[in-house]
Amino acid sequence: MAARFIKIAAFYFVIAIILGIVMGITKAFSYSSVHAHLNLVGWVSLAIIGLVYYAYPAAGKTALATWHFWLHNIGLPVMQGSLFLMLYTQSEGYVVGTIIGSLVLGVGILLFAINVWQHARD
Ligand code: HEM
Ligand code: HEM
């Protein structure tokens, strides 16, 4: 799973940087939380996780790693997409998406932690 995590991380990096550049040019600083989370929970966290699985290949081959991959990559876009729409439309209704997305993401991260505790060995 190492390469899959690193490849999807690079995808979030591109999106987050485009958003950061557009924010800077248009002075749309209200989107900084979306930019920050796509960079840190998308690019930085997923790239580190990819490197963890490169260092501990046995951990990267488990069902927990696959479940975490999908929960993270469904939860984060739902959470940050909803936050983006909430800010863009000034409509509080989208908060449901941020809550559901963050819970899905949180479960994924819990599975990652369990996986590392169980399978990362020297
Ligand atoms: C071309 C690259 C980038 C551009 C143009 C850019 C642009 C911006 C802008 C305009 C803001 C809002 C600043 C404000 O509200 O005062 C911001 C905030 C932020 N950026 Fe970036 N950014 C870039 C790269 C990155 C990267 C690579 C990371 C992390 C890995 C990052 C993390 C953050 C964080 C955490 C914040 C929120 C800071 C806060 O709340 O004070 N940015 N960025
Ligand atoms: C389910 C996971 C997460 C949730 C629900 C969450 C939620 C939040 C919330 C509500 C804020 C305040 C936003 C604001 O003031 O506009 C925030 C800010 C921030 N979070 Fe998270 N967060 C999560 C994960 C993370 C992770 C894993 C990182 C870093 C790796 C991170 C980095 C930050 C940073 C740097 C800020 C301040 C930047 C900014 O919003 O301007 N968050 N987060």
From TrEMBL:
The chain crosses the membrane at residues 9-30, 36-56, 68-88, 94-117. The keyword Transmembrane applies. Gene3D superfamilies: Cytochrome c oxidase-like, subunit I domain (1.20.210.10). Coiled coil: none annotated. SUPFAM superfamilies: Cytochrome c oxidase subunit I-like (SSF81442). Keywords: Membrane, Transmembrane, Transmembrane helix. The keyword Membrane applies. It comes from the Bacteria. This is Cytochrome-c oxidase. It comes from Brevibacillus invocatus. The lineage of its organism: Bacteria, Bacillati, Bacillota, Bacilli, Bacillales.
